[in-house]
Amino acid sequence: MLAIIGGSGLTTLSNLDVSRREVVRTPYGEPSGALVFGEICGQPAVFLPRHGYGHTIPPHMVNYRANLWALHHHQVRGIISVASVGGIRADLQPGDLVLPHQIIDYTWGRKSTFFDGVATPVTHVDFTEPYDARLRAGIEQASRDLGVPLKVGAVYAATQGPRLETAAEVDRLERDGADVVGMTGMPEAVLARELEIPYAALNVIANHAAGRASSANGIHFESLEPVLRDAMSRVRAIIERLIGCQAC
Ligand code: HPA
User: Fold this and answer.
1) Fewer CB atoms < 10 Å away: N or C end of the chain?
2) Domain 2-246: what homologous superfamily?
3) CA 44 to centroid of ligand 1, rounded, Å
4) Atom 2, ligand 1: which residue's CA is nearest?
């Protein structure tokens, strides 16, 4: 069963034929919401909205460990993490879909490992390649089958939030090699790795990053809402195709 973690703009998965919901209790507290189980094109899938069903949990308050533990408890075979981001690279426009291949972590103060118990041996997981190659290839193939444009390869900068960046911070991220910026990519990706769950991200460009292009004088999300809505319908189509719907 594949899991989809939805972010801003994807708080429900309208193409999921829901069979049941389950509030999973975890040793790390409450996940962001009940897991929603169902089928997409006859294939089992489970959905979890990262920010809660009412979109009330800010990025730095998400209980990433509980979310990942709950999905692991249900033995998901992979996770597609959908998240909106700001575009730093000049060719990235609002509404574009991006398949990142690397992460730089600028977050702080988040509970970012399962290996911190007093009785737990010191463990250093390999994180050279933060995203699963097979899942990434599957997403790429699904978008190609559908003729949905996808920008393959981007370095994702995970910032703390919930505030957006300053223009100078975005300049620094670019100097560091980042192409997109978001607030939720870490520690989600590394927690999946610690649990050995294949994990890939599918990013939607919601806005130009601070100080860039149409965000030169500030970021105004309201005007970008229709763009995001249209992009999320393409994300849903890619997920359907990936899961196995030949009609999509
Ligand atoms: N910065 C950080 N996170 C974001 C942005 C951004 O510009 N847009 C959407 N998520």
Assistant:
1) N
2) Nucleoside phosphorylase domain (3.40.50.1580)
3) 31
4) 182
